[in-house]
C-alpha cells in the first residue's frame, strides 16, 4: 500500500474505495467483540467462512467480523446489509440456514429475530429494535459496520478526514479553540474540560510533550472503552493525533490493560496500518507534522487509572499517585507536560473537528455536551452498551433502552460511576444524566458504568462490596486511604454479618469525612461515595441490619435462613437432590425440611424449587419456625375425581 | 524458564529499564509465573535493583511469584456479577477445589483468582477457566463445569 501524502490523495483514495464497494452487495456482519467471543462468536465466524465456500457464495457475499454492536445480552449478533436484517444469539448450527434461506432465498428466519417482550412482535431491522431506537450513536455508531483490523473500512466511512482538515486546514490554536468551544469534558471520570487541559499543556514550558490514551478501564461493570478500542481503534488514533497536533506533542502512548488482549491486538494492528498509510510517523499527510504512538500494557492495578499513577506506571515503576500541586498536563510523564484523556474522549475529537463545535453542542445539557456511552449491566433485561445524548433521563436509559428489570422484580437503585460513584434510588429516575447532575445527586458520571439493582440487592452489601474492592486496590501510599478504608470495610462487614452496633453509622461517617478530606488521590477521596449515597437514600436498610439484625433484601448470608413452607411443599425431591450440602431431609410424599446446621445458604433450593410450588422461602430477622412433627409430614395425595 | 528465552525477551525491549513492566509481563504470560532466576537476570540486564522488581511484581495483579496450577480459574467479582450472586458461586468453587483466591492446590491442578470485571456482564455471573468463559453460573452448575477439567 502506498503512503498517502496529502489530503487530496486521501480523498482520491477514499473515492476509489467507495466506488469499488457496491452498496447493494450483501454483506454479513458478525459481532466479534470480547463479550460476543465469550458467547461463541469465534465458532460462528469459522462456520460462516466454511459454509460460504461450501454453498458456493464466495464472491457474492461479503463476510465481515466487526466490533461490538452493544447489545451484548443477545450476542452473538449477525446483521445482514443492505437490508439490515438482524439475527440474535446465533449458534454455529444456525449458519447454514442463514445462508441458504436468508441469503439465497431472501427468506427471514423468524426464530432468530428479536421479539419485543412488550408486544411479542418480531422485529427485523436493527434500527427498529427499542434497544437501538432510543439511542443516539455518534461515537459508537460505526462499531457495528467496520472491520477493526481493516483501515480501508474506516477510511471508506470518512476516516482520517478530520486529521487532514486539522493538520492542513487549521492551526493548532484553531483546533484547540474548537475543542474548547465544544466543551468536550473528559469521559473517564472527573469530567475535566479537555480543551482546558490541552491548552495548559500547550502553554507549558518545554519542547517535549506527550499525549496519552487512558485505556486502563478499571471500573467493574464498565467496558465501553474496551469495545471502542477493539471495534474502532482508528477513531481513537485519529483523535489522539489531532490532540498531539494541538498540544505540540510528537509522542503518544496508549496505556491499555493487558486483560484486554483483543484491544491490545487491534490497536497494534491499527497503529501498524496507520503508519503504512502515513497517518502516523514522519510528515503525516505531507503536513510536516511528526507523531508516533506506542502501546504500553498495564499489569493490573486499579489505581493506574489515576493520571499521575498511570504516568508513573508508564515510566516502568509501581503505579502510585503523587500529590498534584502541579497538574500532570504541566509536569507529567518524565516530568514533561502530558495530556491524558480516556478512549471515549479521544474518539470524540475527530467528530468535533469534522462537524464543528456547534454541531457537537447541539447534543446535551448546559454543562455536559455531546453523548455518553454507558454500560448498562446488572439486573437489567437488555445488558449492553448504550450511547445517549447527555441529559437523557435515567429512566429512559433503564426502561426504554434497557427494557426494565427482568423476572418481574422491582427496581431499587442504579449505581453509576464505578467504585467512586454512588447509588441513586427510584425517586431520582427523572434525573438527566450529566456530569454536574450526577455529582449533585451524590453519585458521579465516572467512566459510564451503570449497574442496575433490584429489590434483591442489599444496599449495605453494595457499599461493603465497593469498599472491599477499593481496599484491595489502594496503593497504600497515604494513610487515610490505606487505613481509613480498612476500618470502614471492617465496620461494614460487621454490619452485614449482623454484628453491627449502635454508633457504627456515625463512626463510618467520621471515617468517610477524613478520607474525603485527607486522601492523596481521587481513589481515596471518592471511596466513601458508595457508603454515603446508600446511607443517604437507604438509611433504613442500615438500621434494619444493625438494630433488627435483619437484611431487608434477604441477601446477606449471615442474616438469612432458608425455610421450606410445609403448606406449599409437594415433596417433589428436586431441592433435596440438588442440595450440594445434603442438608434437605425428605423423600417421596414426605414434606422436606432443611437441616439448618448443615445448610450453607447457597440458595440452590430456592432457585430450583418449581415456580408452581415456590415452597422455599428466605427468612431474615425472625427465628426459623421449628420443623413440623414427623407424623404430619406425609403427604396423602388426593385422587383426581373424574 | 530458559535463560536464553529471558534474554530474548529483554532484547525485544532493547533492555530499556522503562520497559521493565512490559518485560515482566512477557515473562509472566509465557511462563505463568516469575521465577527468581528470571528476575535476577532482568535486574542484571536492565540495570534496575531487585527491590524495584519485587515492588512491581507484588504491586501489579498480573504477576505471580509462585508457580501456577495447570488450570486457571477466574471468578468474576465485577459489580454486575456481584449483584447476580457471584459470591455464592465463589463459595462453591472454593468448596470444590479446596483453595482460596490467590492459591494453587497441592497437585498444581487448579489456581483460583478473583477478577474485577471480565467485561461480559450480560453473561454474569461468569467463571473463566483457562480463558474460556462459562456464563450464567449458579452454585449448582459449578461442579459440572469443573468436572470437565479433571
In total, how many beta strands of chain B? 4
Main sheet overview of chain A: 5 strands, mixed
Number of helices of chain A: 24
Tally of contiguous helical segments of chain B: 7
* CATH fold-level name of the largest domain in chain B: Glutaredoxin
Basic shape of chain A: globular
Estimated share of beta-strand residues of chain B: 5-15%
Mean pLDDT of chain B: 91
Structurally, how many domains make up the residues of chain A? 5
Q: What do you see in this structure?
A:
The complex is a heterodimer of chains A (642) and B (150). Chain A is α/β, with parallel strands linked by helices and 642 residues long. Chain A folds into five domains: 97 residues, Glutaredoxin; 211 residues, Rossmann fold (3-Layer(aba) Sandwich), CATH 3.40.50; 84 residues, Ubiquitin-like (UB roll) (Roll), CATH 3.10.20.600; 89 residues, de novo design (two linked rop proteins); 74 residues, Alpha-Beta Plaits (2-Layer Sandwich), CATH 3.30.70.20. Chain A has 24 helices and 19 strands. In chain A, α7 packs parallel to α11, α18 crosses α22 and α19 packs antiparallel against α20. The radius of gyration of chain A is 28 Å and the shape is globular. The termini of chain A are far apart. Chain B has seven helices and four strands; from the N terminus they run ααααβααβββα. Chain B folds into two domains: 57 residues, no CATH class; 77 residues, Glutaredoxin. Chain B is 46% helix and 12% strand. By secondary structure, chain B is α+β, with helices and mostly antiparallel strands. The chains are: A alpha/beta (642), B alpha+beta (150). At the A-B interface, α2, β9, β11, β15 and α18 of A face α2, α4, α5, α6 and α7 of B.
